[in-house]
Input
Amino acid sequence: MTQAPAPARRTGRRHDREIIALALPAFGSLVAEPLFVMVDSAVIGHLGTPQLAGLGVAAALLTTAVSVFVFLAYATTAAVARRVGAGDLPAAIRQGMDGIWLALLLGAAVIAAVLPTAPWLVETFGASGTAAPYATTYLRISALGIPAMLVVLAATGVLRGLQDTRTPLYVAVGGFSANAALNIGLVYGAGLGIAGSAWGTVLAQCGMAAAYLVVVVRGARRHGATLRPDAAGIRASAQAGVPLLVRTLSLRAVLMIATAVAARLGDAEIAAHQIVLTLWSLLAFAMDAIAIAGQAIIGRYLGAGDREGARAACRRMVQWGVAAGLVLGVLVALARPLFIPLFTADPAVQGPLLTTLLVVAVTQPVSGIVFILDGVLMGAGDGRYLAWAMVVTLALFAPVALAVPLLGGGLVALWWAMALMMTVRMLTLWLRTRSGRWIVTGASR
Output
């Protein structure tokens, strides 16, 4: 058997060590985030069904409000990593502070929009008459924590750009623990009900934001970086985030269309779809952890002017993505009969679930490539291409998905449409990385 040359093997091992060192803590922090909602659900669930239904509506609205601003983490990671690669740590931290100031401004704007419109938003989202008051209460209180949530996103991007994913893990674990304790204490100990759960989450998010700010401020003082807001820098951060905002909104539209189509297929199908989507999202966390490592590593290489290093890192991470996809796909395929009963005992739901999960399993290697190349291009600051690629993907997916019920297809056909969507994403991202146009070196793109 022909072996790879020793220098190539050493380079591969170096990339492996970097990927593992960044990806493992990133995965931990990613998993910790949805645990916030899980804790709230567990605590509020014992108050009653209307309270739990109200939480479901409010949490969906909050998740949407915050997720559209995930570019605060992605764009900041890429920009900071470039300056780290260029050897300019003061400029890297200044860039990060611009992102944090932008997060505070956006958070204030979201509060101003949500507080007066909360009842209308809850009603529009379809909350029942009994659940609506609880949803409105939770939404209004939790909205006060949105600036902290956005600061957490931006500050996480700063630390990832500085090649530090351990601190976000520690902060996420601390925030999750504080959230659990505060929820139990305020809901039951203080007798505040669903309002206590909302206040507990707000306090936990503010504590996380404060912890991040302490770390960033210390770094700024150590390297002589200014903490004052800079209008030009904030504007540049916003401009860099716009393409990623378009990408995120397009991806959210894909998921919303898929859920709307599943709802038209019947109650059993929408129930099965929600289970599949939950598992699909969980699998995405594993892929996203490697993609986050890619953002930080690629940005650093390009900032240092190392084109070949960026290419080699990209190739290695794609190999990781394919391997992770194969392993996860096999696990899902083999474990389907074991974990499906944990979600539902209804045979009408179990039937389509069993076959649909096989589609998810088969397409995991494609998903692995998509997530990795997405992270590589984000790390390169190639947001404009990512935006256009996702818009094209949405334009191709929408008519195919909407045709599923018209043609008599079921949930399996819908998820084959999802597989088509991921394949289109893979092709658009692969063409871009193969072209080399994403490789722009220097401290800024």
Observations:
- Residues 73 and 157 are 4 Å apart (CA to CA).
